[in-house]
Amino acid sequence: MFQRRMLPASSTRLGYPPLSPPCPYPQPKVWVAIATRMVPRQTVLSCGVGLVFTGNLYPAQRFRIEVPTCSNERGAISGLLSALRTVATDASLVIALENRAVVAQFTKRLSDNVASGWLATGTLAPIYRAAAAALTRRSLGTQFVPFRTHALHVEALSQANAARSLPPRETVATTHTSLALRGRPLATLTQGSAQLTLIASQKVPERKSTVTNIGLAIQAAGDAAGVWPTPARVWSSIRSRDIHRPTREFLWKLIHGAYKVGAFWLHVQDHEDKARCTTCGGTIESMQHILVECTAPGQKLIWELTAELSGRAGTAWKIPTLGSIMSSSLTGAAASAAQRRDFGAQRRQRILISEAAFLIWRLRCERVIQHENDPAKFATDQEIVRRWRATIQRRIRLDLQFTNRRRFGPRTLSLASMRATWEPILHPGSDPPPDNWWGGTGFLVRIWDGCSESPSGLNDEQLAQESDSSSREGA
Prior knowledge:
The chain is an alpha/beta fold. It has two domains: about 170 residues, Ribonuclease H-like superfamily/Ribonuclease H (Nucleotidyltransferase, domain 5, 2-Layer Sandwich), CATH 3.30.420.10; about 260 residues, no CATH class. It has 17 helices and seven strands. Helix 14 packs across helix 17. The longest helix is centred in the C-terminal third of the chain and has 28 residues. It is globular. The N terminus and C terminus are likely disordered.
């Protein structure tokens, strides 16, 4: 599958200038196996890389890289770059690379990557360009072969595992002066590709509110787990599949400070009154006030219902802050080994906190925008309870649907994850839950056994319909 040869080093089809001809005398063929292993539960993501060469020409290598956006792909390309710099340029190189994504970038996607200046590889573009330049400098061809068929793949894996305990080192993505090309070839340049290249070369200034909110989220996550995630980790956690899409958008805008509340309206003529919360005696509104401080119907009750549901599953509850809400998608993601043992509890907290905050925001928008702060139209406690329960039941139904492997394929939620998340709520106590409880009907009614008074005798179908309507409002 991977037995594709790189273009010869003397070829200009890569867009690089031709180099000197290959050495006239034969050189030994060098085989190298490259493996990577991520280091779990670290403040900054890191990856161990192991390289094993055939023969006694080059010693085995192992090192660890540590960067905010670390991944197995970054580790693999770093290992490839290290191998290219180690082996003489006039030797034929055969590479067994474990990461297939990197192999694809240098084989079937090579022409497109060169034409686009490797911009499709995102933040890895500099190191990919350095590796491409190093491959081009080689006098003889370079070949990729399947990793598992290589005789040294087991030793490469052991080197990668051993490298995870080493001090980190920096991968310098330097490029040979004659090969340091940027931009796109004129032969393939279009107006659209030129615009994308210009956009990628510009540095977007950071917004002050975004920097402040990211700091609050990192501080809250660090206080809760004992390790402090990077800003990149906070942003990537929002895209977690555990978070419903409308809730993801809410968290993204919340961190960016994109919602027009409070001080925003003080600078809009004839709309200054919108900056104040009429329920709380004219207090200047902010997302902190709306989500955790406001005395209007909704905020306090929803957090009490969330605490009640969390306590039903035996999970400790802490009063939320704005920082903990913004970092709710990180719950358990950066925790220590002891804190990560109960995966279901961590996933349940991510869902409960984010969904509760989003429902509070929707209720506030209805009260202020739709009903214009008319106290006669404020949501009643019974209605708030009803909508909260509908939200939770919708999430359980979504999780059940996502366990269908035939329908969702690689995006399928494992049955074990679904059970670990919701069984402590549906079947609390020490008694084991019934077998295949999710395959029957009426199992959602058990959630509210022993909770506050049931809302107006609504049945499960009515709650589901109300949940669907509330989901559309949030979208």
